[in-house]
Amino acid sequence: MPLNSKTNNSPTVCVPTLELPPVIQQITTAISAGRRFLMVPHIHIDGDDLGSMIGLALALKQLDKEVYLYSPDPVPERYQFLQGHELITSTLPQGEFDAVFILECPDFKRLPPGLYPKQLTQTIITLDHHEDSPTEERFIGNINWVDPTMSALGEMIALIIFALDLDISAQVATAIYTSIVSDSQAFRFHGVSSRTHLIAAKLLASADIDTNLVHNWTLAYRSQQEQRVTQRCAATREYICNGQVALAELTREMLNEAGLEDDSAIQNLLHDINNEYKAAFALFKNIDGQKIRVSLRSQSVPVLPIAHKFGGGGHALACAMTFPTTDLASVKSLVRAELEKLFGS
Asked: What pLDDT does residue 190 have?
């Protein structure tokens, strides 16, 4: 039977449409009224922010807007295939802006150091898809769009571009598609919805995207340095909660041995070393000699409350927190206790 055929007993399938939330009208109005814009991602820039910044910037240039992309972090090698990555500068542009876009920064600690948005503009647009409560004092903008049902920031950027009714070039479509693939791990995470696929379909229908190129560089690429760090990090694994939860460490020594200055080039590390855990995984990063950052991943049980308890944030099943200490043993003890409460000792 053909795929598009149906019998009288076949249920009617309703394909949802892309609805634009009211806040998009505020954003597009600010874009239309302005000329000079700045986009800023969170520290430790990732593929979601990169693809979103590049895609929106290239789209706005169709409107003859002056757009600046700022990040003190270098563009990771795996994303340098994106046309437009050269637009990102590590030097903060001078002057005032008609609007500043703040991407995925739930509080000032996630902003690049020394950046004070209110000194640069009267219109701050914050965009985020993380699950922290909107009632917290976390927003720094006067136009705030936070939607935890989005699988990636790229979904939100796509809807803004659709609302502006702009032509979607191959460069724009590829950047946004890369954002979604990166943050959803190729449409595998729980946040992926029918809307995610509708947006991807619209991007694919609008322009020629080399999906093989995107998936290979974004998810499959591993440098020799990354492979060495992954092997060292995996060797530190220990298991708790009757083997259901894995813990591992990433240290400055591991990065030095691999010839890496930081961990920005190994963004798939979590997915490479946690393939044996059954319920949850925690990675303890002791890199700069000042603090310990802990990343949590879970298969189905929300671990975000643990991050919230220690001042962190993120998604229900993928989140992080930072401890202002280098005492790894004490941090491990704290996090381990919370994981054991959640998953059993």
From this structure: 78
